[in-house]
């Protein structure tokens, strides 16, 4: 009897916590916080007499965002930036994944090559972006190279960690049962490393957006980064905030795509949770 009496409060607390921490309540809390932030953005600059060119109110930013005259420019430059992001992201992710497979299979190659990879990763990409402009010009290739580098390393490191983390006993079991190297890769190592691969992909997506804008800052004819610099030069702070909102929405959309793809591919991960 005493045992059952003691467990009742614990069970009640667990049930209460589950009821409070439901997805619907989390969404409502997030929307409430967003509403408070937007209200503060609208009214605080006026209450504090902050100049419009420093922090414009939300209404000015929305006016700049939905300006029909600016919409064609937003659309054209968004397409230019996203083409750089997606091209560089695709190349960087594939290259990082392939190299991770090679380094995981050949420990000697890993020991020789990986220190140089770390050295290259340690170089700030902003510092080498002007070199890419000199080597590849002001066109798309120089921007893509920056994005490739920023997408390559997160995928390489995370995928390599996933491949090297596979239980060696499972690998030996596959070999004892006559599995070929390709079968070990596709049926054991790749599925086991998928969580780390998708984690690397999420980081690569975020880095790709940053890389594209930084590359456009350094030198480009068009793109959202160019529009930000132009608006800054004209002291149109509301337009700068509008462009930042566009970039945020694009980043959120790409991140959601990766998360949905992760849920579809790694079904057992969601079941375990």
Automatic annotation (TrEMBL):
Q: Where is the ABC transmembrane type-1 domain?
A: 78-258
Alphabetized Pfam families for the sequence: BPD_transp_1
- Please tell me where this protein is predominantly located: membrane
- Give TM segment ranges: 27-44, 82-104, 116-138, 144-163, 197-218, 238-258
- List the residue ranges forming a coiled coil, or say none: none
The protein depicted here goes by the name ABC transmembrane type-1 domain-containing protein
UniProt lists the family membership as follows: Belongs to the binding-protein-dependent transport system permease family.
Keywords annotated in UniProt: Cell membrane, Membrane, Transmembrane, Transmembrane helix, Transport
* UniProt membrane topology term: Multi-pass membrane protein
Q: What PROSITE patterns does the entry give?
A: ABC_TM1
**Annotated source species:** Microbacterium arborescens
| Listed InterPro entries | MetI-like, MetI-like_sf
